[in-house]
Amino acid sequence: MLDTAYDLERARLRDSSNPFIRFADLLPVRDAVLFPDDVEYTPCVHAKRLGAQVGLEHLYLKDETHLPTGTTKYRSAVIVLSLMLESGVRRFASASTGNAGTAYAYVLQTKPFSSIEMHLFVGEKFRDHCHYGDAPNIRVFALRGGTFEAAAAASGAYASQLGLVRDAGFFNPGKREGAKLAFFEATDQIEAPIDWYVQATSSGLGVDGTYKGAQELLALSHIDRLPRLLCVQEDTCAPQVRAWEEGCKAIEPRHVVQQPQGIAWAIHRGDPTGAYPYMRAKVEKSNGAYCAVSESEIRSAQASVKEHEGIDICFNAAAAVAGTMKEARRGTISPRETVLVNLTGNFRSPETETKAVTWLERRDGAWTSDDNTIRIPY
Ligand SMILES: Cc1ncc(COP(=O)(O)O)c(C=O)c1O
Known about the structure:
This protein is of the alpha/beta class. It has helices at residues 19-22, 48-54, 73-87, 99-107, 148-162, 173-179, 181-189, 205-219, 239-245, 276-285, 295-309, 315-330; strands at residues 44-46, 58-63, 91-95, 117-123, 138-143, 165-166, 196-200, 228-234, 289-293, 338-343, 357-363, 366-369, 375-377.
């Protein structure tokens, strides 16, 4: 499955405070019974004091830290796993920088999803950011010295070896469809039309899904314009920003970051070759922009959000705030425009750390487990 389309002639928004129910006609799940019944809209804060710092009157923060597992990835996990259940998928392999995998692990422990088995691959430095993995239907594999890219490749090869369904990341439509819900909710929470949607970008599935969703809401006359998209990356791992700045339609080898360093680790996708052409087309169509921010800009944005709005956010979410402030100062975003920044997550407490992990080492051209039962060529 590549993408989803809805019958927009018949779709309608329902009267519910549960976003999965309210927007059910624009989600690719047939049976709404699968949706969690205890989820409410996340807060959307009019950040007057933070906005005043850079002269933005209508700056709104979508506080996704309130979701189970503390990140926006929870929304995608619910949609992907519901789709799997409805399509008869019972085993899948995935790769994550921590938040998506954690959200899957959490949802997989709720009924009716415990009948699905996940095999999750992570690079070494992400191992401590994967939580809730201690359940019989979850296996976590950590690649010694491996990056996110290596984990994604290994999860694909492993899925083929064992005949599992592969979670294709950006190219998993369930992930993109779930991600649009933050913007959907905000259209009910902010009276004015939203001029800009800002999000920290790894592959960009959150931004991509949001733009598609905005087109659907426009078709239903729920909104009257599409938002401009602002994608923010950390300058130490900003392949999409570099390609955009050079006017390239595709990622070139020189844009790829082999060993990402920095603090916004969850958005460190060094090689977004597959996703970028789609992202670029959407950002261009929206008359949007890409922006890279430094560690000190991220830290200062994080401190400002805490000081002015009292919200604790992780460095990834703070990158989006830093990018907003930078583009406001540059004049890309003008003072009277309405800006929605997705605060995609917070730091989870280490107490919930994944307990059992199978380590894989590079040996003779394959990621290999200690007991040699797993060998995944790379
Ligand atoms: C906290 C947080 N923000 C933003 C992102 C960006 O994700 P994407 O670019 O795939 O939408 C991620 C991805 O893992 C994340 O964990």
